[in-house]
Amino acid sequence: MEDIGPIQMLCVAFDGNRFKGEILPELDRLKRERIIRIIDLLLVRKDEEGRVMVMTSSDLDWDEATAFGSYVGALAGLGAAGPEGIERGSMAGAAELADGHLFNENDTFRVTQSLPNDMSAALVLIEHLWAKELRDAVERAGGRELSNEWLRPEDILAAGHDVGAKSDID
User: Fold this and answer.
1) For the stretch 67-93, what's the b/e string if a residue is b when 16 or more beta carbons lie within 10 angstroms of its beta carbon?
2) Over the stretch 66-99, which tens digit does the pLDDT of each residue have?
3) Domain ranges in the chain?
């Protein structure tokens, strides 16, 4: 697995279903310029009568998705069960992302249930490719991050510790 840049989970909502066509072209521009990569995107639209349309997208091909899943799963397994959990977590993570998406049917159901009629919501995991070089330079200089609101591998590891403290993984 290549080095992963900082990952941000962005959730946005919109009244109605009337988009001006500005968001996707901007995402495409950022991707073309290798500023970001979309790990996963879930868009849910609910019309005035409650009918739902769901769209998903990812920039990861199958190999990248399963490698990313393996990496994230290994971190979660390490956090939940220590070194013994790495291999099991890695396999589970790769299997979970074999379809190319981190957001699953449960996420879609929760968004759909919480979204009022005549509203749209998007959940997107964005890898910030631009930040990899800066992050590495700060680390080489001995700098320390004091605050960060982004989802990073360390955050996944901490979440795994929390999960491990609440349940016993066999």
Assistant:
1) bbbbbbbbbbbbbbbeeebbebbbebb
2) 999 999 999 999 999 999 999 999 999 999 999 9
3) 7-60+99-166
